[in-house]
Specification:
It contains 3 helices and no strands. The protein has 82 residues and is mostly helical.
């Protein structure tokens, strides 16, 4: 499974980016850099990750650092799918 591609697809769908996420690199900043990524969008991203990837995310596992960049989110998802 290509975790980065899965994460980009989830971001694209949850944030309504219409394909823009496919241009993101691991260094692309997320939280604070994308106006679409508000608190409700974070919940939508987590819900899609759980549905598509079969992982469970506890509330205390997520903080701002998780959504700092595409790379930090990919690392988090990789640790869950692991």
């Amino acid at each position: 499974m290509d975790i980065k591609n899965e994460v980009l697809e989830i971001l694209d769908e949850a944030l309504g980016l219409n394909g823009r996420a496919q241009t993101f690199s691991l260094d692309t900043p997320l939280l604070g850099a994308l106006p679409e990524l508000d608190s409700m969008a974070v919940v939508a991203v987590i819900n899609l990750m759980e549905e598509r990837l079969g992982v469970y995310v506890d509330d205390d596992e997520i903080d701002g650092a998780t959504f700092a960049s595409v790379g930090t989110l990919v690392d988090f998802v990789q640790s869950k799918v692991g």
